[in-house]
User: What shape does this take?
Amino acid sequence: MYAQMVKTDGTGIKSSEQMTPEERAFQERIDADSRIEPKEWMPAGYRKTLIRQISQHAHSEIVGQLPESNWVTRAPTLERKAILLAKVQDEAGHGLYLYCAAETLGISRDEMFEQLHSGRAKYSSIFNYPTLSWADIGTVGWLVDGAAIMNQVPLQRTSYGPYARAMVRICKEESFHQRQGFHIMMQMAKGTEAQRRMAQDALDRFWYPALMMFGPSDADSVHSAQSMAWKIKIDTNDGLRQKFVDQTVPQAEYLGLTVPDDKLAWNADKFGEGKGGYDFSEPDWDEFFAVISGDGPCNAERLGARVKAWEEGAWYREGLMANAAKQADRQPAQAAA
Ligand SMILES: [Fe+2]
Ligand SMILES: [Fe+2]
Assistant: This one.
């Protein structure tokens, strides 16, 4: 989701006999649910895959601020401005925890930024869609943060300690984000006919991009199987998408909105059997692959905004470095005095 297309490093899952003694001991610790910490031995593939996953997640938090910060000044009341501002600041905090977690694996923050700014690193496809109305801000909180919770709650049990711990705090904040979005939608659903139309229009545009957030079906993927064996990934993309639909459809009904899917139907027979979840239409995966590879409605704008912020912040970074050098120069003199 926030890390939708993480290529797993490694050559597929090895049997216990194929593993080196170190690899076997590592896998046994993972199987016993113990946490791996930064200085401990880990397979190179585990390290690389985690760097990819955590940095993709961090980039998503940072780029994810853009479609919403755009609305801070246009939020309808002072209270809504304050709430939205707090949420956008939380997302910056999420990005920072996650960059820190990735740094413990041996990549520098500069390298991660370089990968983002050059377009080599991915971030969640959802943030390449525009937020056109105030109802879009409600829908983003409701669906996008809702999907984030769905994906991130299980990651609190992920095998890498710094990532799992970052997720605990992030999940608490995501719950607030989801509630504030749903609250905006409740107000609009109770509002005028024009407000209800805006709410429906936002759901129509964001429903399928929200389903794409979980990534394509990974049932047969070797990469996913390895990531799941390492407990970097806890649930399958399809499993999470199903949970999300099952949770969200009753919320849409409560709001009096229609999920834009003719095929949507509860799948249970008269004995209460069946899959016990909704059948639903898949999103357009061609659109997903186009957006994730840089060809969505706002990719150029989002990346452009990040690059501009980086370039305009150069004087500040230089100032910090100059100050640090000055402090370091002074220290021997102070020690001698
Ligand atoms: Fe977040
Ligand atoms: Fe959030």
